[in-house]
Amino acid sequence: MSLKIKTHHLWKDSSHQHFQQWADHYDRDFLNILLFRPTHDRVLALLRQWKRRGLCRARLLDVGCGTGTLALRCARLPRLVERIEGVDISDNMIANARDKAAMAGLADSINFQVGDAERLPFEDNYFDVVTCCNSFHHYPRQQQAVREMNRVLKNSGRLILIDGSRDNWFGYLIFQVCVVLVEKHVHHCDRRRFARLLERAGFTDIQQNYFGVCPPVIINTARADKS
């Protein structure tokens, strides 16, 4: 086995263990207030905006869905989402997500399953929207993950890819120094790398915006081009 493959497996195993352990207290973590909920608010705002422009009865996939909070919030948007799928590498996260969906009475409209962002368990051209929030830095093969997101989207389907931003000195200190010291096997992209990954995967109409200060966050939106 080559060093590159060994590193890939090491990175993925580290992420799996991290999220398996985090699942028990994930919904109570301070990051929900600091980062996750503000990120989800931005996703919902984009979906409402797209709804006003004609998006309705959409199929939505949330990659790296965690305990399903974003998927559950999307499911409550009236007449926007027809079906939601959520995938996460951690079976503990998925178990919690399924419990939350059942308690909310939404188990029939949301399906959560264990899955790998580099090999999404869905057919080509199936989804209208793919979201990926605050998990992309854990993916060892980021180009492959973005290609998979493009593959499962319909032509002109929309991608929302959000992660911590390292584009200013404060973001670099947080994500490329502090987070790397704590979690080790992570890589936050800068603005240019995100754009290159999306372009190479076949996305067009790429737009990038920032929000937040502590921590700073980048929102990438794009369209799948199957022409």
Question: How would you describe this structure to a colleague?
Answer:
The structure is a single chain. By secondary structure, the chain is an alpha/beta fold. The chain has helices at residues 3-22, 31-52, 69-75, 91-103, 142-152, 169-183, 191-201; strands at residues 58-63, 81-88, 110-114, 127-133, 153-164, 203-211, 217-224. A 7-stranded mixed beta sheet has the order 3-2-1-4-5-7-6, sandwiched between helices. The longest helix has 22 residues, at 31-52. It is globular.
Quick summary:
With 227 residues, the chain is of the alpha/beta class. 44% of the residues lie in helices and 24% in strands.
Average pLDDT for all residues: 88
Strand order of the largest sheet: 3-2-1-4-5-7-6
DSSP summary: helix tally: 7
* Sequence of secondary-structure elements: HHEHEHEEHEHHEE
- Determine the N-to-C terminus distance: 38 Å
Structural class: alpha/beta
How much helicity do the residues have? 40-55%
Largest sheet: 7 strands, mixed
The residue ranges in which pLDDT falls below 50 over 5 or more consecutive positions are 1-6
Morphology: globular
Return Rg in Å.
17 Å
Measured by DSSP, the beta-strand proportion falls in: 15-25%
The count of DSSP E runs of length 2 or more, i.e. the number of strands, is 7
